[in-house]
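tool_call: predict_structure(chain=1)
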Amino acid sequence: QISDLHVGSFASSKPVQKIVDLINEENADIVFFTGDLVNYTVDEALPYASILKKIRAKKAVYSILGNHDYGMYVDWSSKTDHEKHFQQLLDLQRKELGWDLLMDENRILEINGKKLAVIGVQYIGHNLHFGKFGNLDKAYEGAQNADVQLLLSHDPSHWDHEVSVNEKYKNIHATFAGHTHGFQFGIEIPGFKWSPSQWVYKQWAGLYKQGNQFLYVNRGLGFLGYPGRLGIWPEITLIELKKA
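tool_result:
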């Protein structure tokens, strides 16, 4: 899992190339990108498209959108311009990068006679008024009976407010999120984890469990605002699924 690239914050292609190299070294079956490719507009990603398209997975690279990918933080001259920009970002991920962008939909993979569902929901947030675009009911349709159900949802607050509290979604085994960056500031040492992020997000970095459901919050790879990180490292997460 990778998340929150925010490629518009990078000053050169060197760190982006390193990110792709590290991802590919893992030789993953599946790669999840859990949103926020850009800060404001799709133009930020164009210089890095030739690098990002080299991300490899044995089966597929699945992606979803984060709040920044909707162009909400730009004063557009018209609704048409905004809609055109949004379509360009979708086309970039699907056509240029070759990622399977999930917009309230799912994919069913058959592995060793079992069905694994990858469910991708558009942005749904419950903190800081970032908005709501997704529909989990729509994304989940057809995935209910899969043996393993994995959900991609950018904002971890969605897990608390809908995924983990609704009986309908009790069989979504694991949710993958990002969004918080761990506020790019904090302390993480064995046995102790702290960041101002915890005053805003109940789950803000790492693995969480409630009942039989898991949530993993990726700390992100890029940065926004402050050009760096202090104590909260950028992250590429390797998750291994094992037979119970």
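agent: The chain has five helices and eleven strands. Proceeding to next step.
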